[in-house]
Specification:
Elements: E1 7-13, H1 17-28, E2 33-36, E3 50-51, H2 53-61, E4 72-74, E5 76-81, E6 84-89, E7 95-97, H3 100-113, E8 117-119, E9 124-128, E10 131-134, E11 137-146, H4 153-157, E12 163-177, E13 184-189, E14 193-201, E15 204-211, H5 219-225, H6 227-232, E16 237-238, E17 243-252, E18 256-257, E19 260-262, H7 277-294, H8 297-323, H9 325-337, H10 339-349, H11 355-371
Parallel strand pairs: 1-2, 1-11, 2-8, 5-13, 11-19
Antiparallel strand pairs: 3-7, 4-7, 5-6, 9-10, 10-11, 12-15, 12-16, 12-17, 13-14, 14-15, 18-19
Helix pairs in contact: 1-3, 1-7, 2-7, 7-8, 8-9, 9-10, 9-11, 10-11
């Protein structure tokens, strides 16, 4: 469908990965799509920069496959606390570590290629009914999509700001010029924080510190608790300025009303500890486009709830591990005795377990917490 003046079928507010994915998915359904964002690309965010196998599959469902050689492959997850370690490879596929800015550029390229109209440095000032108001102009849209992050204005404008629950933590990120020493994403645990190490190229790693308090995620203070990690980075060049962010676990009562729908962090979020934010955003984009095609956003609301159940459950589990030293130590000792149990946890973590396996593994994890 072609544009007619200042009209479009779908108007997406927010041009980050979630907004671009929603735009691409709707455009592939044949809708005319505009995206507006007040920022100038590429848009960065302090995140772990690891795309899990499920995230890559969700991208593929949107018709997007990362070119060979883009980013750095990793084969699984490794938990580390002091002298204790547990690691497991993904049951299927691999992950890819990639700079957030590079991923954003690839999504922009895909959106432009399929005919999405992109309006950068163009903040939206309000919405009313089918009208989207920008500085000096108004665009009429049948469907309006809010993809403007955790502090979404669209959520407020669309009367969707009722939260079921919310918690937040703080994160800081750096990039170091050093060859990755592992084929795994490593998660280092202490009583105050988690440190994520993701290989993103043959010569660079991304490191994110996540914790409850600002002082806990200061890099130099964190390194004092992580001597092994500090040793690995000794002499490595700092390749980016330090960047901070808030990571939130948030769910909403509803994610659509009338002709307005929310995707990505605007629609609720999971803590960075899950590594599931982008996968959820890409799957939500696919579900939203299907609902728009049917003209029924109620279908999107149902799909959104279903997609979020496992990541929210895993997020709560991992947050509890982070907050309770004795439980975490029991679990790590249990993983040492029973390596296959950690592989089962990883399968749960990335959505590669069946419902029966989820129940059985949950029971085993509970037993290890009690007896480890």
């Amino acid at each position: 469908m072609a544009f007619l003046g200042e009209q479009t079928d779908v108007f997406v507010i927010g041009g980050g990965p979630a907004g671009l994915a929603a735009a691409i998915a709707a455009r592939r359904k044949g809708f005319a799509v505009m995206v507006a964002d007040g920022a100038e690309p590429p848009i960065d965010k302090a995140c772990g920069e690891g795309l899990m196998p499920g995230t890559l599959a969700a991208l593929k469902d949107l018709g997007i496959a990362l070119r060979p050689g883009v980013g750095c492959r990793f084969r699984g997850i490794r938990f580390i606390q002091g002298q204790m370690e547990a690691e497991a490879a993904f049951a299927e596929g691999h992950g890819i570590g990639i700079r957030r800015t590079l991923l954003h550029e690839l999504l922009i390229e895909e959106a432009e290629g399929c005919g999405v109209t992109l309006l950068w440095k163009t903040p939206v000032t309000s919405i009313h009914g089918t009208a989207v108001r920008l500085k000096g102009r108004t665009v009429t849209a049948r469907w309006i999509v809010g993809a403007d992050g955790c502090n979404s204005r669209v959520r407020r404008w669309g009367a969707l700001d009722s939260r079921a629950n919310k918690s937040h933590r703080l994160a800081t990120r750096r990039h170091y010029g050093v060859s990755p020493w592992s084929e795994y994403v490593e998660i280092y645990w202490t009583a105050q924080l988690q440190a994520y190490v993701t290989p993103i190229s043959d010569e660079e790693v991304c490191i994110v510190m996540v914790g409850e308090k600002a002082e806990a995620v200061e890099f130099e203070r964190a390194f004092a608790q992580l001597p092994e990690l500090r040793s690995r980075l000794r002499g490595a060049k700092l390749c980016s300025r330090e960047r901070g962010a808030m990571t939130a676990m948030q769910s909403l009562v509803r994610v659509w009303r009338r002709n307005v729908a929310l995707v990505g962090d605007a629609s609720g979020s999971v803590d960075a500890i899950t590594g599931e934010g982008l996968r959820l955003a890409f799957q939500q984009a696919h579900a939203l486009a299907a609902a728009i095609e049917r003209g029924n956003l109620r279908d999107y609301g149902k799909a959104h709830r279903q997609l979020g159940r496992r990541p929210l459950w895993m997020g709560r589990l991992l947050l509890q591990l982070g907050r309770h030293d004795e439980i975490r130590l029991r679990m790590l000792r249990g993983f040492g005795r029973r390596p296959k149990l950690f592989a089962k946890l990883l399968a749960m973590y990335v959505g590669q377990a069946t419902p029966t396996e989820l129940i059985a593994t949950g029971a085993q994890l509970g037993w290890e917490c009690l007896t480890g």
